[in-house]
Task: inverse folding
């Protein structure tokens, strides 16, 4: 892009840093921004900063939220005795799409991965233990991805929780092994939830 | 995304407006923004506004540029008597990648499309005529996409230019018919340039 205007090159580089966007797509997106109205470009830029500055972690489940508690944790109609443990906030969106799960969540914000130096104290495991020790939790569903790291994390947490007398279950392997929770279709995800097994 | 924080939903909606990005990818990108540092998010937002506010049209060829003239039009080593007419600035990037074309460009910023109500006065045709009437143009290469609109636009412009005594050529159909200039590989594009035919 030697002869391309510098601000366009810089914008394309920003797009190329996003997951799943290569350099050609990034250039295409940068050119698209040039066709936006001034107002639309301002709205786009503002929405990035707004999302980044106004959204924090729910005090209970660590999902992203604008308030102290996320809408799920502050919803009295949900079953607060069942906790579904997920890797990332995007996985909650996937479960909510099934419209079948009525419990609450806990977001780990990562998976154990000794190869990458991710140890238990670097993800939200102690916050999960604190929730369970505070009582009234009947079941913990481990809903991490069926990958090496996801399985290891589920096993590790399961071993920590069993001495506390809480029932720990795992999503059924309706999910294709090596797959990603976020991209599972709704029916598969619902089956996986329905056929969950005690660990 | 009923239970997702509103600023995240709004950001995902912004991403979903970009070409080639569906709602699931848009959500993924929005979640990715949350993992950026404050500084990175600021840089991303700034680069959108910078590209939008600092980049304007080259006075001669109508490509995007930060200055009055784009780097190609202000380059004395280029052959200013040969004009390659393209639909959009992104097509220039594709030709420059071949490193074989030494002439200059003219960006139409659109193609004729009576179905969509795009008439000759809505794209940069009269600016092209003005350049040719100002003299010293030996050849005009029509490099619009080999689609219905691209062909029609090339034919229309060719008929306008011939009475002016200028040689008008068309990219060779090395390009797959129905394809897009922007995504053509470098060799195909070079062949198409090399085998261009007089119209």
Result:
């Amino acid at each position: 892009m030697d002869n391309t205007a510098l601000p366009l090159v810089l914008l394309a580089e920003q797009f190329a840093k996003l997951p799943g966007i290569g350099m050609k797509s990034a250039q295409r997106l940068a050119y698209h921004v040039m066709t936006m109205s001034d107002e639309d470009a301002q709205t786009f830029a503002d929405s990035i900063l707004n999302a980044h500055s106004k959204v924090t972690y729910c005090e209970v489940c660590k999902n992203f939220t604008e308030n102290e508690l996320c809408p799920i944790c502050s919803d009295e109609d949900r079953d607060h005795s069942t906790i579904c443990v997920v890797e990332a906030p995007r996985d909650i969106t996937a479960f909510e799409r099934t419209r079948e799960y009525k419990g609450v969540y806990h977001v780990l914000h990562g998976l154990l991965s000794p190869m990458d130096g991710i140890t238990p104290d670097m993800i939200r495991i102690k916050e999960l233990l604190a929730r369970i020790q505070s009582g009234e939790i009947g079941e913990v569903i481990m809903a991490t991805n069926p990958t090496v790291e996801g399985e290891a994390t589920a096993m590790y947490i399961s071993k920590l929780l069993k001495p506390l007398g809480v029932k720990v279950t795992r999503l059924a392997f309706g999910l294709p092994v090596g797959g990603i929770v976020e991209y599972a279709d709704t029916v598969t995800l619902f089956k996986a939830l329905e056929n969950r097994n005690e660990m």
